[in-house]
């Protein structure tokens, strides 16, 4: 690029905007600053001009492209500008900052963040030309690369997945100039959750943005970069809070000494799920193309971290569900036989340790075969569910009801002696006898009750209680028998 040699020979500039009003405004406001200022409406016109005469500066006014940017056409223009030694300045709307790294892939492009007042725009263009574009800042890139390495370490610690989002934020907040880092995740179409934050004391994203429930519908969703990036999937760079057009938001940020906010979209899976990284800076910071590439890599890592944490949560839930299925009787919802055996072993150990009594009750529905035979299996099933519900309703919360077989159940009753166990069994018998069963006659149960003795094996107690239950059947049913010791 050829810098202006003297004030008398101001450089030649081309200003490209699809919007006539913007072209007029720039021509009137900034025309006097250039030896020649040519305004054009399309990339083709700009390319023709650059081919026919020497152009020092090409200003791409991207605000007019909100409804769709022809990246390939503008990219070709950047390629041609770099071939002609023409400096390129993109004036990019803050909500579409991803256009900057996208254009950077075609060649060197400096940027300014819009909206800009006309006067400020002329100053930026002139400044840009005088300093010969923005120099890359290796120190900032080094710092960003160091953050990336620390982020990889933070993610590699899979032993503490629940704290991963917080670790990721703490790592992001260590980038020089970042006062606060936050991670947002879309949990549903209107549920944007703050999953982690770290930074300067007193800076709290919840307080800044208000209640989580309204975040995705907040009027600031078009203004605050963390929200814009998560909701639209666009890189959003607000380099001055007042540019967002939300005075209250600007005041909140400036009160906290925040002068720049960057929102980087985060992809959570191949689909539409997404989130964002939100970095708040105390000072403005210029990003080189390498910086943008590193920020994109950080967003990928953050996406991986969130996905991993989510997968860990899913696996935990799945494991809990498998355990529940493996230990629960599908028909009645009470503990199944296998779980019952485990519970009895556990309670026997506890009873011994604390020298507390433990009672076991086994009960069986009387002549249940007749229910099935007369009314059908479906009515029988419903009766079994009703028995489980009725008995569950008369037990203490510390008692465990178990379905040990087809129409046989057991109750493990901690801190319960044989005498008290007899009372519980009697309560069960009376409750079942007093219940109306849908679709069939009244039902009764027979029960056997026993108390764990000394160092008795729980299996032995089960045998004694089953024998007592058999005696209750022989005694005419609808009664309770105490197990012999
Ligand atoms: N509907 C239904 N019936 C079941 C289920 N499991 C076992 N049964 C039935 O329960 C009945 C048990 O019959 P028996 O063992 O002869 O005992 P009973 O008819 O209750 O007679 P007593 O126990 O001697 O009073 C059988 O008809 C089984 O088919 C089940 O899950 N659903």
Automatic annotation (TrEMBL):
<dbReference type="GO" id="GO:0052621">
    <property type="term" value="F:diguanylate cyclase activity"/>
</dbReference>
<protein>
    <recommendedName>
        <fullName>diguanylate cyclase</fullName>
        <ecNumber>2.7.7.65</ecNumber>
    </recommendedName>
</protein>
<dbReference type="InterPro" id="IPR029787">
    <property type="entry name" value="Nucleotide_cyclase"/>
</dbReference>
<dbReference type="InterPro" id="IPR050469">
    <property type="entry name" value="Diguanylate_Cyclase"/>
</dbReference>
<dbReference type="InterPro" id="IPR029016">
    <property type="entry name" value="GAF-like_dom_sf"/>
</dbReference>
<dbReference type="InterPro" id="IPR043128">
    <property type="entry name" value="Rev_trsase/Diguanyl_cyclase"/>
</dbReference>
<dbReference type="Pfam" id="PF00990">
    <property type="entry name" value="GGDEF"/>
</dbReference>
<dbReference type="GO" id="GO:0005886">
    <property type="term" value="C:plasma membrane"/>
</dbReference>
<dbReference type="GO" id="GO:1902201">
    <property type="term" value="P:negative regulation of bacterial-type flagellum-dependent cell motility"/>
</dbReference>
<dbReference type="InterPro" id="IPR000160">
    <property type="entry name" value="GGDEF_dom"/>
</dbReference>
<feature type="domain" description="GGDEF">
    <location>
        <begin position="356"/>
        <end position="485"/>
    </location>
</feature>
<dbReference type="GO" id="GO:0043709">
    <property type="term" value="P:cell adhesion involved in single-species biofilm formation"/>
</dbReference>
């Amino acid at each position: 690029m050829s810098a202006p040699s003297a004030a008398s020979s101001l450089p030649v500039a081309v200003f490209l905007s699809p919007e006539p009003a913007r072209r007029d405004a720039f021509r009137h406001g900034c025309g006097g600053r250039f030896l020649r200022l040519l305004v054009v409406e399309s990339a083709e016109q700009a390319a023709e001009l650059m081919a026919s005469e020497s152009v020092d500066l090409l200003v791409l006014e991207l605000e007019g492209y909100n409804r769709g940017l022809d990246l390939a056409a503008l990219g070709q223009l950047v390629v041609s500008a770099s071939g002609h030694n023409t400096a390129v300045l993109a004036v990019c709307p803050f909500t579409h900052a991803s256009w900057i790294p996208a254009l950077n892939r075609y060649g060197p492009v400096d940027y300014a963040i819009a909206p800009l007042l006309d006067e400020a725009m002329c100053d930026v263009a002139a400044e840009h030309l005088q300093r010969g574009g923005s120099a890359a800042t290796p120190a900032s890139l080094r710092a960003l690369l160091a953050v990336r390495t620390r982020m990889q370490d933070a993610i590699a610690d899979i032993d503490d997945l629940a704290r991963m989002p917080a670790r990721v934020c703490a790592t992001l907040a260590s980038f020089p100039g970042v006062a606060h880092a936050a991670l947002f995740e879309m949990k549903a179409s209107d549920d944007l959750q703050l999953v982690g934050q770290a930074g300067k004391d007193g800076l709290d994203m919840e307080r800044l943005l208000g209640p989580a429930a309204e975040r995705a519908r907040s009027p600031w969703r078009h203004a605050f970069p963390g929200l814009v990036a998560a909701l639209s999937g666009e890189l959003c760079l607000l380099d001055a809070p007042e540019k967002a057009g939300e005075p209250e938001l600007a005041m909140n940020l400036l009160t906290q000494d925040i002068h720049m906010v960057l929102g980087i979209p985060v992809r959570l899976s191949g689909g539409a799920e997404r989130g964002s990284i939100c970095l708040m800076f105390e000072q403005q910071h210029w990003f080189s193309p390498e910086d943008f590439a590193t920020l994109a890599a950080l967003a990928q890592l953050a996406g991986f971290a969130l996905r991993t944490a989510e997968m860990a949560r899913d696996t935990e839930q799945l494991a809990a569900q498998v355990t529940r299925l493996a230990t629960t009787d599908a028909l009645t919802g009470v503990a199944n036989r296998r779980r019952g055996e485990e519970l009895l072993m556990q309670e026997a150990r506890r009873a011994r340790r604390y020298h507390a009594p433990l009672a076991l009750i086994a009960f069986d529905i009387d002549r249940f075969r007749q229910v099935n035979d007369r009314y059908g299996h479906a009515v029988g099933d419903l009766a079994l569910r009703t028995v489980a519900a009725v008995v569950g309703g008369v037990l203490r919360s510390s008692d465990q009801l178990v379905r040990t077989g087809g129409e046989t159940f057991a109750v493990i009753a901690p801190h319960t002696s044989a005498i008290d166990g007899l009372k519980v069994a009697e309560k069960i018998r009376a409750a079942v006898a007093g219940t109306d069963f849908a679709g069939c006659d009244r039902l009764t149960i027979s029960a056997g009750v026993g108390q764990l003795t000394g160092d008795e094996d729980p299996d032995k107690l089960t045998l004694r209680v089953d024998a007592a239950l058999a005696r209750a059947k022989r005694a005419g049913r609808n009664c309770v028998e105490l197990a012999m010791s």
